[in-house]
Specification:
Strand content: 15-25%
Structural class: alpha/beta
Number of strands: 5
Number of helices: 6
Helix content: 40-55%
Order of helices and strands: EHEHEHEHEHH
Largest sheet: 5 strands, parallel
Amino acid sequence: MIALGSDQAGYELKQVIIRHLEERGLEYKDYGSYNADPVDYPVYGKKVAHAIVEGECDKGILICGTGIGISIAANKIKGIRAAVCSDCFSAEATRLHNDANILAFGARVIGPGLAEKIVDTFLDTEFSGVERHQRRVDMIEEG
């Protein structure tokens, strides 16, 4: 299950991603926001982060204007490794090397077609499990 969250800036692109996930037959849960009215992005970053650490969802996707603010909010939750990715190479690398569990991106930075490709890359790439990468993930988790 994939947790989704956005602020008002990311709302429209989140709708595109929802349709894309449905086309792929992937299950998701939308944690808001549910329209384009102004909201505070930390609320939705934290909702998605908690859904992951509490085991309700496996991975998350967060969207705000840049992806930065909402990822910072999510990364405040222990156990979360949210990465802002605006290209497929970064989305692949953060899964392979960092075992990132949340993808974040900016609706004012990338368009719908690229967003779909980044989502696919993130969701379809497994953590490498290579010892040096696991060691580094463990170091991140220690705080």
